Amino acid sequence: MKKFRFAGSLAALALVASLFLPSCLDDDGYSLGDHWWSIATARPLSDNAFYLTLDDGTTLWPAAPTHIRFQPEHPQRVAIDYTLLGDKFQGYDHAIRLNLLDTVLTKAPVQDFGIKNDSVYGKDPVKISAIWVGDGFLNVSFQTRFSGAFKHAVNLVNRAELSDVPYHLEFRHNAFGDTDGQWRSGLVAFDLSSLTSDSSTVKLHVFVDTYEGSKDYKLDYSPGKSSADAPEERVDNASGFGDSGILR
């Protein structure tokens, strides 16, 4: 988890939190002025609520979401800014105050059309900032040129059935001709649960067209198991959450 502080007073948020949290959350020595930032998975519950899991398996209960109104229909990757309030709260590792939440584009792998993949999914290059497997998702942070005219499309093509390489995946980017704008960051997560029912660790080969040529990123994927936390450099800044709004 990555911790940082905001300039200015958080007295108003602290007051709101104090109205809703039980007194036991004061016992762990956490400061309401401390902020943490993470990529996480929002997991829906049956009572119009949700909890969060981090890439290392840590579970978070948003005890004080304050102004945030969010209800995922399925496991949804999100970028969150939060404050730790207490440990071991009602079966969760931590109770938190959720300060900010931004959804990360979350998709499933798509159908392989063979030689038609270039025309269907595009072949525009990207700069990879970070690529990792976490919490059952392939997470890709990248940069591309973007003018703002319309959203770019990103997809993960599962080519395993037509390839000699087991778990052969291709990250595809379609800029729709929008290749002359300013550099912008994108962040997308792909649900890997459909790849295999085997619980053993497998080696993913994720092929990406970059500005330096095609690259094969070899990543371990262990279905049903937690992963180490993502690298700290996974996004360019905490406030922008990777500009995921430029993608579809």
Structural class: mainly beta
The biggest beta sheet reads: 5 strands, mixed, barrel
CATH domain fold name of the largest domain: Immunoglobulin-like
The CATH architecture designation of the largest domain is Sandwich
Radius of gyration: 19 Å
Cα(first) to Cα(last) distance is 27 Å
How many helices in DSSP terms? Answer: 2
**Uncertain regions spanning at least 5 consecutive residues:** 2-27, 231-243
Could you please describe the fold and organization of this structure?
The protein starts with a strand and ends in a 27-residue tail after the last strand. Residues 2-27 and 231-243 have low confidence and may be disordered. It is mostly beta strands and 248 residues long. It has 2 helices and 14 strands, in the order βαββββββαβββββββ. A hairpin with a 5-residue loop joins strand 2 (35-44) and strand 3. It is globular and about 55 Å long. The strands form 3 sheets. A 5-stranded mixed β-barrel has the order 2-3-4-6-5. The chain folds into 2 domains: 2-103, Beta Barrel (OB fold (Dihydrolipoamide Acetyltransferase, E2P)); 105-246, Immunoglobulin-like (Sandwich).
